[in-house]
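Q: How would the structure tokens look for this protein?
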Amino acid sequence: MRCGPCGNGTVAMDLKSESKATLDSYGCEPDKPSFARACLLARRMVERGVRFINIFHSGWDAHSNVEGNVRNNCNTTDRASAALVKDLQEHGLLDETLVIWGGEFGRTPMVESNPALGRSLGRDHHPQAFTMWMAGGGIRPGMTLGATDDFGFHVVESKVHVHDMQATVLHLLGLDHERLTFHLAGRDFRLTDVHGRVVTEVLA
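A: Here is the predicted structure in token form.
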């Protein structure tokens, strides 16, 4: 990870060189750890040639008070996430940077209530249908792919499996997921578990 000085002599972790307008767009306080600060640091790392960057925001496990949980987490992440994409674009970096925003699964459309565990007005884990978004890096902008039933329970249109997602990301990184196959103990293995297709509908 190359986080030293860049061409203008600034150090990646020192945000004092950023303009007030940039800090305000992210909602970032330079010396205060936050999701917003992590997003701004991500842009600075991209500028310095860092190839893979992960940003984490915990606290989405809304087994209780799903409305308050999602509202609070969106207030924490939406502004900075949008600012990161816009900032990358303004710096001429978005076309070569793939931004992926997602979690491990969605939440059930029905209420979860479990007095024994102290849970109420929440949602349980739901892997059948959930949303991720991507920007830049060869992704077609301004489109939505897929739809669920009226309850948000099952995918009913343009279903994308996790293996399809993996195959698509590998494709955008310049790798053919089918060529990453190795044979062991009588079966084939690869990162997409010998499944998956590149979701060409989302490619620019």
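The chain has a mean pLDDT of 92.

The chain is about 25% helix and 15% strand.

Upvote if useful.
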